[in-house]
Amino acid sequence: MSAVLTLEHVKKTIKGNPIINDLSFSVQAGEIFGLLGPNGAGKTTTIRMIVGLIGLTDGDIIVSGKSVKKNFEEAVKNIGAIVENPEMYKHLTGYQNLKQYARMHKGISKEKIDEVIELVGLTERIDEKVRTYSLGMRQRLGLAQCLLHDPKLLILDEPTNGLDPAGIREFRDHLRMLTETKGMSVIVSSHLLSEMEMMCDRIAIIQQGTLTDIQYVRDFVDNDQMVYLIETGPLDNVKNWLQQDWNATFVDSGFTVSVNKEEVPLLLNRLIDSKVSVYSAKEIVKTLEQRFLEVTTHTNGGL
Amino acid sequence: MGNLLMNEWIKIFRKLSTTIMIVLLLLGIVTMGAFYKYQETTSTTQVNENWKQELQTQISSDQEGLTTAGENNANMKTYYERQIALNEYRIENDIAPNNEQHIWTFVGDSQMMISLAGLFSIIIAAGIVSSEFSSGTIKLLLIRPISRVKILLSKYITVLLFGILMLAIIYLFSSLVGLVLFGLPSTDVSHLAYSNGEVIERSISFNLVIQYLLSSIDILMIATMAFMISSAFRNSSFAIGISLFLLFMGGTATILLASWFDWTKYILFANTDLTAYFDGVPIVEGMTLSFSIVMLLIYFLIFHLLAFGIFAKRDVAA
Ligand SMILES: Nc1ncnc2c1ncn2[C@@H]1O[C@H](COP(=O)(O)OP(=O)(O)OP(=O)(O)O)[C@@H](O)[C@H]1O
Ligand SMILES: [Mg+2]
């Protein structure tokens, strides 16, 4: 796999304040990559640096083999982006707005514009002034704007902000379709983990300008092993084999264990055979959400 | 570049305010025409048989002024010398002062409207960059595979084209209104110009084109400055405020200063009125046309260095 985007030790200092500290990661072709972090973590700042809106204090950003710093035009050609809110020319219609952006890239046909409008579901309202659009419709127009030139890398800062549940679902499907059929890579930022989990292949957690964790979401979702909390009476007689065979962790009211669903009866039978009183066995959902909260609350959040 | 200019042009002309500007300009010219027409019908213009005698009296009174006021004021001296030369030329060549209104006098009078055109051009210049910042659209504009210098250049050229369009509207529309209301001149008229102690006759319509261009120089410079302020500070009200203040006060303040300080000649507004070198007197003694042109170029360059330098480098965090 080849990296479409690579950040190499990127640093950003604004007026003496370090906003981004030594950020490095890369995004592969066809991947949906999530930037997750609390408010003020530096997600938008990172995105602004990738698209060249703000300069880098140190480090470099490579898009499709071209440095944003040294070869801005060649690098940014491969990017389609929404940075924060998708602001458009309010006195122009949706279509006129798209034409504006189409004129700034090479070889965008009328058919392409219509195709993109169809894809984001704005066909009916496209000839109305953007002034009259709802937030969700502006988001859709924003998405249309960054798809016009078939970029290799799509960067979307809080893209689902303002979309209704059906819209969010549709948006997720679009992203899947774009990555699978066109091999596009996508970076999505959000502070909502639940949303990111459903959308992304990999999630990076950013806090106070530092990358604290990168995880594959699929590892979690595909993994059949769940954590169970088994509430029991005294465990003195069975502690040995519980620890050795099942790698259990003991807590006040019993123990927790990470197993497949099918193994649960096996474990319970053995406990009962050993005359241990079993009161309950329940699944504890330990998702990325917990991981996220764990990590982010340790350091007093980002605020 | 063509596409960028087209984009800017569309953004400007889809705005209601631009339509209003053009309508105001046209209305202004029509109103002026109506006013002059009314004046013409109420005042009876009879041919003055004694005009040579009157001019002679005028010349002697100017000569008196020349010896008294011209003694210690070079500006006044040149002014009187010019008046005397023009009047003497009229007597010698039998060209009666003509009070007749016709198409060309009206096109000339319409130069008043250039201030209005200037006002509009400055508003456009002050808003063309800063409005992208205030609406947030600058982000979507600057993430295209086009350098910031090119984007800013397309915006500046658009401002110039807008100004030229405004001038063309005034010239052409006032010719039309002038033709309809006052008709063509009854006799062959030409423009009397005074330069280097000599009186020259020039074609009047050509002279008007030159006059229009020359009287737009201060607007060009102020619009360029407004453009610079708007690109550097990203704030259109600041750019409009300071530019309009200078447009209306700069000239007057410079004239006031000119009578006390010699360094006034380095001020932008001392150099924007190039007509002084053709038909009048320079504001500070000893100034020449080439001096003013060099000064204008220096200001122009400084404005653009600031605008482009700051716009190309600064972080966009709007
Ligand atoms: N122009 C600026 N000047 C000074 N500080 C800034 C500037 N822009 C951003 N910051 C600071 O940088 C930090 C990161 O901001 P950023 O907008 O990147 O956060 P974010 O992760 O996008 O947050 P959110 O989830 O609220 O969108 C914040 O502490 C912010 O105050
Ligand atoms: Mg943000």
Automatic annotation (TrEMBL), chain A:
State the SMART domains in the record.
AAA
Gene3D superfamilies attached to this UniProt entry: P-loop containing nucleotide triphosphate hydrolases
- Asked if the keyword ATP-binding belongs to this entry, the reply reads yes
Task: Domain (ABC transporter): give its ranges.
Answer: 5-233
Q: Name one Pfam family in it.
A: ABC_tran
Q: Name one GO molecular function term.
A: ATP binding
Name the domain of life this protein comes from: Bacteria
The alphabetical list of record keywords is: ATP-binding, Nucleotide-binding, Transport
Tell me its family: Belongs to the ABC transporter superfamily.
The name under which this protein is listed is ABC transporter ATP-binding protein
Q: Which organism is it from?
A: Aquibacillus rhizosphaerae
User: What taxonomic ancestry is recorded?
Assistant: Bacteria, Bacillati, Bacillota, Bacilli, Bacillales
UniProtKB/TrEMBL annotation, chain B:
Pfam families in the record, alphabetically?
ABC2_membrane_2
Transmembrane portions of the chain:
12-36, 112-135, 156-184, 204-226, 238-261, 289-312
Q: Which keywords are on file for this protein? A: Membrane, Transmembrane, Transmembrane helix
Q: Name the PANTHER family for this protein.
A: INTEGRAL MEMBRANE PROTEIN-RELATED, MEMBRANE PROTEIN
The name of this protein is ABC transporter permease
